[in-house]
């Protein structure tokens, strides 16, 4: 798939809208369009990397540091009881958008969600 066809690149470029909760020069944190639970967000680099095999270790490290900060913010704001961090690589693993991203999925007692 070409970068021009990438939905997250389009979001980063402002070509399609998103609910952005945080961004800096390198990363963007957006609400998932189809949330598994209340507060399901995606953390993504602005640069296009396909997956864990494509992203460089430094960017992946910074992204995880940001994810940890966002996780704490979600807990503060939403009072969730737990959180899943999920990161899919390849179609077989459930990846549907081939621009590296990390899911932060707040969990609530009794939410009965399978992730
Ligand atoms: P994956 O299955 O690749 O790990 O996750 C892709 C995620 O991107 C899915 O949870 C899906 O709901 C979300 N998604 C797909 N298209 C859009 C979009 O246009 N905007 C937003 N905010 N999320 C999207
Ligand atoms: Zn992209």
Automatic annotation (TrEMBL):
Active site: 101 (tele-amp-histidine intermediate)
Domain HIT: 7-114
Short sequence motif named Histidine triad motif, residue ranges: 99-103
Molecular functions (GO terms): catalytic activity
Domain of life: Bacteria
Biological processes annotated in GO: nucleotide metabolic process
Name of the featured protein: Histidine triad protein
Covered range of the whole protein: 1 to 115 of 138
């Amino acid at each position: 798939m070409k970068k021009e066809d990438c939905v997250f690149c389009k979001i980063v470029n402002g070509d399609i809208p998103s609910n952005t909760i945080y961004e800096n020069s390198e990363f963007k944190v957006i609400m998932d369009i189809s949330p598994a639970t209340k507060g399901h967000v995606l953390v993504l680099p602005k640069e296009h990397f396909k997956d864990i095999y494509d992203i460089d270790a430094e960017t992946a490290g910074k992204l995880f540091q940001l994810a940890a900060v966002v996780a704490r913010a979600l807990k503060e704001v939403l009072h969730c009881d737990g959180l899943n961090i999920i990161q899919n690589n390849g179609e077989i693993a459930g990846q549907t958008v081939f621009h590296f991203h990390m899911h932060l999925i707040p969990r609530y007692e009794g939410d009965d969600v399978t992730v």
